[in-house]
């Protein structure tokens, strides 16, 4: 059975069809092929959220998973992120939680906060 | 009175991009005035990813994207003032601003770029029927509370309008533990990007009710419940179709409006987008006053905001060098069938560059159409589109060579003949 | 008898006057009583002054052309109208005597205009009958079908929010005590005084003034049965943003009917446009909901007066409840049994216009003879001046900000309201606990984005000022918390 998908890689949101042999059609760019294959075999999402800080100016610091994590880990990642407080200064790309929720990827800061 | 070459109002994506472009085209005396305490504008609260695919060829979060531009501004030593509120500009290009340190200051600028962004359409503007209670707020405001201040506005949420901010917030509040009960969209189609329907609603099994609206808000003090109703073809609620949802929050994602008060207040002609009417150099009817980004028309992608900011910055540089004049021959653009507005509102045939871009939004989703450009009734260019949707801004390149005479350029959607 | 200072401190004892209700009427009664050495306490069930009928009305200071001659409405309207210029100067409230026009669109309405002209004459209100041409010259956007109009030059517009807040502020500055969020649950005559019980405490006093608006009937009945009743009559409105060029220059009325003064089109003191109100009796005194059919009808009627109203500039709709008395006239009199229990009830339109005159009359004619108080030696008629950066020249504004940088920090984008103005309100004698209270006093959040940008900042300022958690800050009424919890 072919699977119908909406590609989420970029705002184009291409309508993809992935057949049983993992052939992807409907994509406007090669990233769609990779996404289509990934989505039917092992769906993944990049998670963006915030963590608490000790900063005087920013109550929270935005963070993301450096790579997409398995979809089923989404709420586990959130749970760990919500337990975390980071100390400033912090810079974009700084690791906030290593290998978050055993996902194999790190939670990293997405804002520079000096104080 | 202080004299400056270029004053840029707004330090968001459009303003920063304009400043960098103006600098790179030789302007040195630049001042960015930003009302908040951060550069980056609305991107500060847009912590989700998906920005920068066109500009940087990678997928960034809002804060990452704005930091790159803020760094470009800082590397060039472009002056910016935060917490600085511009209360007015004049047709003679006097900018009045205030902040805590400088007091109230007037600047005589040689050129001004207005990049003041947009604001959200809110409950008052559409007059949702029912009890007027707390808990009915715009999605962007909920986003600000959550992503910058660290507060959730509610536990059980319903969303009116399928604009992207609403969809993004459906996911965001779900991740933070709220229950999002559904999204109602007045139109028979979504106003958000497809990818957001997928990753923000479908991923979390949040239902989308097309052709529905909120027909009643119920509560005392705080929202307790809402009723949604299906709407007829005239978008009126159909009695008997009411569905009730117990919720403490109704988020509104019902559109963005250019925050164009500064230019409106001095009587600058408006375009159909509710921003000012501009020419191909994004110059308003006043020489040396430019408009770009969401204050001109609401964009779907920040990448396009940035490219528009660059056009304005470059044009301001040309203007300051005395190389941007107004010719006597021009073309006026008209939004034809199926088209909501067209930017630019006019093209100066003598001064326009060889490559022109026209941007517009269609009025409703349409399949199998030509985007047709007609000059004085004669078709000069057609682009075939399998589908075109209002949530995506259309950008079409048109070479100046096709614009052979003065008159009216109509952009319209024409159905492809089916054999 | 020896009175222990301890007792005085902890049991302040008998009040002279308790005013129930801090709407515009209660606030003016308090203000005029504060000219005397009296222990006056105001009890208000809402968490802000002027939070019900006084904040949701047409904000018009009627000339007095409409009430039937000889009625209390006629008397207090005309007298109140005359007091307005000075009162607003003392209380630092925006007021403009812009004049009003009653507009006849049909030939058949000209007769009615003449009736109105006669009433105005009997009430001592100056008017001038305008020809169609004159009306069109004064109001270019009026329905070109206009046949004639009655011009009342003394009609005006006022900021009803600051009117109430500043009248009460003046009263409190002069020694009146104000308790917010304290609803009266019972009033009893005990010997020669009253025992007033609230949901928090109980108080003794010599005189009670019932200014409880929609609930004045309930309060009056705590003392004796009454022959009148107060029916909530809802009015729904549209508010348009201020924009240029102007839509109308005067308050435009159609011809009055048994339902009231009709759907009007006017500019407010802030340059917004107000269109409404509808007029429907409703069952509940707590029903402030709006509905689309009623508003559609308001729109239809308004466009008969001014055909091209730019409704795309709409920024808000709202509903207010008038406290309509079954008697047809204001009730301003002592109760049947007790001359020291005074009902001030049924103050519907032209209540706002009448309120200073009612306050003065109640204080000086009804209350003062009962207590024979001395003049308050420290009485000041004016509130501390409000700083208005928007009305200053650039030089003045610059000087202000150099002295107090908070006036350089703009919080509300749309209405250009500075941190200094908001913190000034917070420093006043009448508290402003809620986001709505700040909005009413400063206009922060009143603009086209409706607080989209400034509300979070106002909320945090309130939390800081009142030493509360942001989670406790209310938008408006009890339970209207904006935030649910910290996200982390």
Description:
The complex is a heterotrimer of chains A (115), B (419) and C (488). Chain A has 115 residues and is an alpha+beta fold. Chain A folds into two domains: 3-41, no CATH class; 48-109, Roll (CPE0013-like fold), CATH 3.10.530.10. Helix content of chain A is 18%, strand content 30%. Chain A has helices at 30-41, 74-82; strands at residues 3-6, 15-18, 24-25, 44-45, 48-53, 60-65, 69-70, 85-86, 95-97, 107-109. In chain A, strand 5 (48-53) and strand 6 form a beta hairpin. The longest helix of chain A has 12 residues, at 30-41. The N and C termini of chain A lie far apart (54 Å). Chain B folds into three domains: 1-119 and 255-324, FAD/NAD(P)-binding domain; 122-254, FAD/NAD(P)-binding domain (3-Layer(bba) Sandwich); 328-419, Sandwich (Immunoglobulin-like), CATH 2.60.40. Chain B has helices at 13-24, 62-75, 123-126, 139-149, 164-175, 194-201, 261-264, 302-320, and strands at residues 2-9, 30-33, 49-51, 60-61, 79-81, 85-89, 94-99, 103-114, 118-120, 136-138, 151-152, 156-160, 179-185, 208-210, 212-220, 222-230, 243-246, 249-252, 256-258, 289-291, 330-335, 339-343, 346-348, 355-362, 366-375, 378-388, 394-399, 407-415. In chain B, strands 1, 2, 5, 6, 7, 8 and 20 form a seven-stranded mixed β-sheet that branches. In chain B, a hairpin with an 8-residue loop joins strand 3 and strand 4. In chain B, helix 4 (139-149) packs across helix 5. Chain C has 488 residues and is of the alpha+beta class. In chain C, strands 1, 2, 9, 10, 11, 12, 19 and 20 form an eight-stranded mixed β-sheet that branches. In chain C, strands 13, 15, 16, 17 and 18 form a five-stranded antiparallel β-sheet that branches. A four-stranded mixed β-sheet of chain C has the order 6-7-5-14. Chain C folds into three domains: 5-54 and 161-226 and 328-371, 3-Layer(bba) Sandwich (FAD/NAD(P)-binding domain), CATH 3.50.50; 100-153 and 230-325, D-Amino Acid Oxidase, Chain A, domain 2; 389-472, Arc Repressor Mutant, subunit A, CATH 1.10.10. The longest helix of chain C is centred in the C-terminal third of the chain and has 21 residues, at 351-371. At the B-C interface, strand 7, strand 8, helix 3, helix 4 and strand 11 of B face strand 18, helix 10, helix 13 and strand 23 of C. Strand 11 of chain B pairs antiparallel with strand 23 (485-486) of chain C.
